[in-house]
Design brief:
Layout lengths: L10 E3 L2 E3 L4 E5 L6 E6 L3 H20 L2 H17 L1 H12 L3 H18 L7 E3 L6 E9 L2 E5 L5 H14 L3 E5 L6 H10 L8 E3 L4 H9 L3 E7 L2 H11 L5 E5 L4 E5 L5 H13 L9 E7 L3 H12 L20 H16 L4 E3 L14 E4 L6 H4 L6 E7 L2 H9 L6 E5 L3 H8 L6 E4 L18 E2 L4 H6 L2 E9 L6
Parallel strand pairs: 7-8, 7-10, 8-9, 10-11, 12-13, 12-17, 13-16, 15-16, 17-18
Antiparallel strand pairs: 1-2, 3-4, 5-6, 6-20, 11-19, 14-15
Bound molecules: nicotinamide-adenine-dinucleotide.
Length: 479
């Protein structure tokens, strides 16, 4: 059955496409036009979604792992088959340009194919006695709630759907109210191949998230979003001791050593910082540059920034799209007002253009105080502080002086020194001379308040399971 990606957005509950009485507007951030009305789930519809997932769990979890994983791989095929439609809709609702949409949708299908190859085999322990065996199996949890943000709505949903379903759980998925459309269409598409109730997609406001995190029949929440919301979710999940995986915010440092070519490094660091209009949890958000090359690096990154086109993602030639929503745009305006009031020095940007669309120019700030808001806060938009350093011990202290610990990068031709710096950074991922590499087979998670738990790799898969250990005494009783 063909799916119209341009209209008719419905929730998927228990295998049925569901409309609602209430709807909410979805806005194209490049034009501020309402592009669709998305369903606003009632409490009764939400309850039905959880009930449907609960009903589907016994037979889904009893299915052989190979069959479940084959279906997860097929999800990847379906995403690939509808890649163009997804990319077009993603640009309309999220704002990102074609290259960004290709990265996200391409990655989504790769993730399904690769996660489908992973298995959690039983572990046998040595009992030391010939007639006893001890086996530990990984068994699914039950109904999992998935909650996603608005920066990579499809990829981050897939990061939850693939491992949850592969391990035998069923799911209720809630996208961000700013970007629900691709996820609703994903639900509709997957409904063609998954048994009823295995994946339910509901849309609505933040209160829908709160219903999910406090529901007694939901056994786990896998959440990607801000640290502030992560704290609320952890608290709500305590009611029935839900398992949690929280992928939260970051304020990633990049350390640029004096032995690199400033021009080449400036280009790399530009994209490390501004990819997806810097609405990226692992964007380089503080760039520490050694004082010997600081001036040249600052000149090069500013000149490179001038070659980048910010605009409507649907227009050819656009490199970076708008800020995704008004809430984030207002936050960034406030941050810029503070930067100006604090007399910070701008290498470029800072002035918001007139006209339609939530556009913000690429903004680079010249060596602001370490305590300024643009350094301390996660901007989650295209504003980058460049910071000068002289001493390695000092820059490591500054890099680690944050509540966050998501990722970091070190740039140097001296790999021994780079590695010794990387070893001292408090972050879940540290890249040396590269950035933003991810793999379905490599653990991703935050230190400190950037998260709890891991996504991807076998460790990530195991987070969707409980262990069940079976001790068997093979000797006959009473003989
Ligand atoms: P957000 O926390 O505002 O919202 C994320 C999701 O949580 C949305 O679906 C929202 O509706 C829902 N939500 C809001 N309040 C809730 C509540 N009380 N209970 C349950 N759910 C609730 O985050 P955002 O603004 O959409 O995303 C930006 C943030 O996400 C940034 O901080 C960014 O760094 C982080 N992020 C982290 C990663 C990562 O992997 N670590 C990836 C992408 C984004």
């Amino acid at each position: 059955m063909t799916i119209d990606f341009n209209s008719d957005y419905k929730m998927t509950i228990g295998g049925v496409l569901v409309q609602t009485d209430e709807t909410f507007n979805v806005i194209n951030p490049a034009t501020e036009e309402v592009i669709a009305k998305a369903p606003e789930a009632s409490q009764a519809q939400f309850e039905e979604a959880v009930a449907a997932a609960k009903r589907a769990f016994p037979s889904w979890s009893a299915r052989p792992s190979e069959e479940r994983r084959a279906l997860v791989s097929k999800i990847g095929d379906l995403v690939e088959k509808h890649a163009d439609a997804f990319m077009h809709l993603l640009t309309k609702e999220q704002g990102k340009g074609r290259a960004g949409a290709e990265w996200e949708i391409g990655g989504s299908s790769i993730w399904c194919h690769e996660i489908a190859k992973q298995t959690l085999d039983p572990e046998m322990a040595e009992s030391g006695e010939p007639d006893r065996s001890i086996e530990t199996h990984r068994v699914p949890l039950g109904v999992v709630g998935g909650i996603t943000p608005w920066n990579f709505p499809v990829l981050l949903a897939i990061w939850k759907i693939a491992p949850a379903l592969a391990t035998g759980n069923t799911m209720v998925l809630k996208p961000s109210p700013y970007t629900p459309l691709c996820t609703l269409k994903l639900g509709e598409l997957l409904n063609q191949i998954l048994p009823a109730g295995v994946l339910n997609v509901v849309s609505g406001g933040n209160e829908l998230g709160a219903w999910l995190t406090s529901h007694p029949d939901v056994r786990k929440i896998s959440f990607t979003g801000s640290t502030a919301t992560g704290r609320k979710i952890m608290q709500a999940c305590s009611s029935n001791l839900k398992r949690i995986t929280l992928e939260l915010g970051g304020n990633d440092p990049a350390i640029v050593m004096p032995d690199v070519d400033p021009k080449a490094a400036a280009k790399e660091l530009f994209w490390a910082s501004f990819q997806n209009s810097a609405q990226f949890c692992v964007a380089a958000k503080r760039v520490y540059v050694h004082e010997d090359i600081y001036d040249e690096f600052a000149k090069e990154i500013t000149e490179y920034a001038a070659t980048i086109k910010v605009g409507d993602g649907s227009q050819q030639g656009t490199d970076l799209g708008p800020i995704q929503n008004k809430m984030q745009y207002d936050k960034l305006q406030d941050l810029m007002a503070d930067a100006k009031a604090s007399d910070l020095s701008f290498l470029t940007g800072g002035e918001f253009p007139e006209g339609k669309g939530y556009f913000m120019p690429i903004t680079i700030i010249d060596n602001p105080p370490e305590t300024s808001r643009v350094v301390v806060e996660e901007a989650f938009g295209p504003v980058l502080p460049l910071l000068k350093f002289k001493d390695i011990d000092d820059v490591i202290v500054r890099a680690n002086d944050t509540e966050y610990g998501l990722a970091a990068s070190v740039w140097s031709n001296d790999l021994t020194t780079a590695r010794s710096i990387a070893d001292r950074i408090e972050a879940g991922t540290v890249w040396i001379n590269e950035v933003h590499s991810f793999s379905p087979h490599v653990a991703f998670g935050g230190h400190k308040q950037s998260g709890v738990g891991i996504e991807n790799a076998l460790d990530g898969l195991a987070e969707y399971t409980n262990s069940r250990t079976i001790y068997t005494n093979h000797g006959a009783i009473g003989q």
